[in-house]
Amino acid sequence: MKPDLSLVDPLDYNLATRLAVGDMLTRVSWLFPDRLAIVDPDGSEISYRAFEVASEGVARSLIAEGLERQEPVALLLPNSWRFLASFFGCAKAGLIACPINIQLDVETIAWILEDATVTTVIIDRALLPTLEKAFRNNRRLKLVIVVGDGPEPDVGDRRCVAFDSLLVDGPGVSIRIEDRDIVHCLYTSGTTSRPKGVLTSHVAVMVASLSNAIQVGHPRGEEYSVLPIVLPLFHTTALDTLALPVLATGGTVVLGASFAPDTLLDVVERYRATHLMLLPAMYQALLASESIARRDLSSVRLCIYAMAPMPRDLIGRLARAFPNSKILLGSGQTECVPATVFQWPSNQYDKSDSWGPPAITVDARIIDPDGAIAERDAVGEIVYRSPHTMSGYWNSAEANRVAFEHGWFHSGDVGMVDRAGVIWFVDRLKDIVKSGGENVSSVEVERVLLGHPEVLECAVVGSPDPRWGEAVTAVVVVREGTDLEDDSIELELLNYCKEHLPRFAVPKRFIFETSLPKTATGKIQKSEIRSRLREHG
Amino acid sequence: MKPDLSLVDPLDYNLATRLAVGDMLTRVSWLFPDRLAIVDPDGSEISYRAFEVASEGVARSLIAEGLERQEPVALLLPNSWRFLASFFGCAKAGLIACPINIQLDVETIAWILEDATVTTVIIDRALLPTLEKAFRNNRRLKLVIVVGDGPEPDVGDRRCVAFDSLLVDGPGVSIRIEDRDIVHCLYTSGTTSRPKGVLTSHVAVMVASLSNAIQVGHPRGEEYSVLPIVLPLFHTTALDTLALPVLATGGTVVLGASFAPDTLLDVVERYRATHLMLLPAMYQALLASESIARRDLSSVRLCIYAMAPMPRDLIGRLARAFPNSKILLGSGQTECVPATVFQWPSNQYDKSDSWGPPAITVDARIIDPDGAIAERDAVGEIVYRSPHTMSGYWNSAEANRVAFEHGWFHSGDVGMVDRAGVIWFVDRLKDIVKSGGENVSSVEVERVLLGHPEVLECAVVGSPDPRWGEAVTAVVVVREGTDLEDDSIELELLNYCKEHLPRFAVPKRFIFETSLPKTATGKIQKSEIRSRLREHG
């Protein structure tokens, strides 16, 4: 049934008809070469022309270094325009960008580099002293590209290249890219102690970009969006729902290295930001700024937030502070690139505890354990279908089988859908805590805690928290005879966790009990613990 | 490099991750079951629930009739909600919908049915007496589905089914659909006397829908677009840029069987239309309506027009008649599904003769005959790259080779791109006339004219026309001795053309000359004729 294309050159045909993420940048930069694409955290302003030349330079250089189609490239970089040029460089070269959470512990990063069979890393010079340990013993790694000035670092017998030496102008990169080629791999914490690599295709990223642009109203043309980004680009939220939809529609992203309320308010005023996307705790900090009443925040049309519904009074205060802005809750997960649900404006007050209806390119349902779709208002696992579902977990055939069972992607979230198609989150099936934009594996934190001699048993869950969405909470049973009167054991466990876990995974709260609720077969009932925490705090 | 998905059921995996045009309707109808999807030309109002049930019914029935994956189904239907249910039914069943221009002559339709290897037609009962001739001798056709009440027609020994008997509720259709499966095939006139089937994939249609929604500002959610459609759905403009983007974003389409100014103004007021898309001549007729000054046209936010820039005074009058509306020129072609270029609002007056910059998902360039990209302001062929380029022409390997040469889709239009990325149309490379939304093959009209005994030689070209965009114009050299004093020969040729050509292809104008401009090798110089017509009328 397919057309007879035997006379067509396959590369010519691919170039003229393909769906490729790198082409989104080519299009915009051709049309708006002098427009501001990115403001770096250091304040430097990058035009679309410069950004395209840099991205093409990265692509051309990586190919010249001998990297082959669909080879993975790890990014160990903080927010910067070079992060985005690295991402687009990989996309244009048909490589897989693997941005890695630089806050992870060295051991986990080392494990990811092995799991993803990484041969090339692009790393910030400031991170080298710490993270070099992550690949010191990696025998597959052959190329280290260093961002930042300075003497050539010691990277063993590997080839070492300065990032900026890649950024030379030259002929456009023309290689074949297929719809379902992988464009990025992001590691996400699941129920096992090791994170899983989420493989995402060009189709998924481009459809998600266009879908997001419609959902949050990015215009395209003479008017365009301006969006400050303080969330880390190594996570899908900042990369796929913030940076890419804005860049695909010719807008400007203003990158921040971290969140500081007054710096962000300065950026909003200076660049006339049209959109904001922050965690609820960040909006609280913004509203607490002493200077906010004097600010001109009239340019902002939409304040997006994520992770969990905000209290109604916070929404009201936010709406007053940003007089021309709507407030929008978005929810999602790495496996869906990531946005799956966007709240309706009218639900913001009436159904303020709900997530909202599925996004325009997403089907959402509640599924029974036997795979049947549940009735409205019935509780079960939330499942999704979408062209921006991941292609699969890397090296995890069993996880893929479970993830796609019954023709739906299984989110691991328990909830219900009401008559209006609005999704309500009830509980988490997967044993993870979503805290401050990070997925924390409960099992991993429990494994560490159980390694402490005083801990007999423990359960790590999320408890509702206005600042973190969920706070990592450890419910601990200690050995008989341990002194619980002063807080020395709590301090002891806290320090022990800080030593053995990445910062974001360290419990915010310890609760000491004499026993944990269990099933008849002796399994700890986490849903019971979570439900007690929700009700009694 | 692809993930190991060996444990995943292929159908389950496909359902959870696929990009399929039919799923766009599933999503919207699940969320807005009671919202108005379509108003039929007969006035009946179809909800999204009813539309989804009907489309699933068509899909289920076609599969039950034994049609196999990617089998073509011809639609011989005027504008109606059943046209759109047929289209979505085919899309959901993994079949190729082939909407055919019902204004074509019977012989050409017969040829298309053969070329597309059609086994099933869905046909309006009112068209049967005329168009039955088109498949009377077709030996491949096995199933005739008839829209409209009445006794069972005589369709030979083929199976005959009433369309409405397909529309029964039942379990959802779950079949595998791949990104580049073909979802529709539209025949378009080219330089040869026979039209070519343009094969379009699910990727192309979905990306075009999302791209269009961004370009023309379809919101999605509690606010939504309302769009009257009077252009015929068997053309890509009405189907792919009007109906599908509105339906994909949960809006309402109000179908008209044909264009009548006061009926359309009634629709705008009654349904609070947010968008309009008409040909320039239709806007002129609208403005000439005696009732327009009394109308409430405040709901319209965007008036889109196509084919050729409108005169500045018409744009000004339109802007005054629709007080809240912007005016937008869009250009494109069937091979690009179709929108490739959208004008900037600011160019509407300053560069009112230009087409505008490429659409968000399209690269446009000017190419030299040797495949090199031309400098800005240089004249050459306009070429495109886009994920919504066609998959290819059906049964036309040589045409595909030419169409995709040098890694670009060749439009057949000659133009230039200025420093601002704005495209200016100069001339047509392909020998077609674009008149009133139809492509007319010059060669086909010339072939007919040359069949008349009095015609010695002739050239058919388009001349600029405020009503038709281009008017089909025949420049004719008649035999010596033919009387040119009265207009009898003109009337004679006009009637001869009416007899042998579809209505839209009949020349609007005859010009009699004693010779035609020719190259040294004797080839008629059409560009010379077109340029004379542009300058001297």
UniProtKB/TrEMBL annotation, chains A, B:
InterPro entries assigned: AMP-bd_C, AMP-bd_C_sf, AMP-dep_synth/lig_dom, ANL_N_sf, ATP-dep_AMP-bd_enzyme
Cross-referenced SUPFAM superfamilies: Acetyl-CoA synthetase-like
Domain AMP-binding enzyme C-terminal: 444-523
Species for this entry: Ferrimicrobium acidiphilum
Protein name in the entry: Class I adenylate-forming enzyme family protein
AMP-dependent synthetase/ligase domain: residues covered: 32-394
Family matches, as Pfam families: AMP-binding, AMP-binding_C
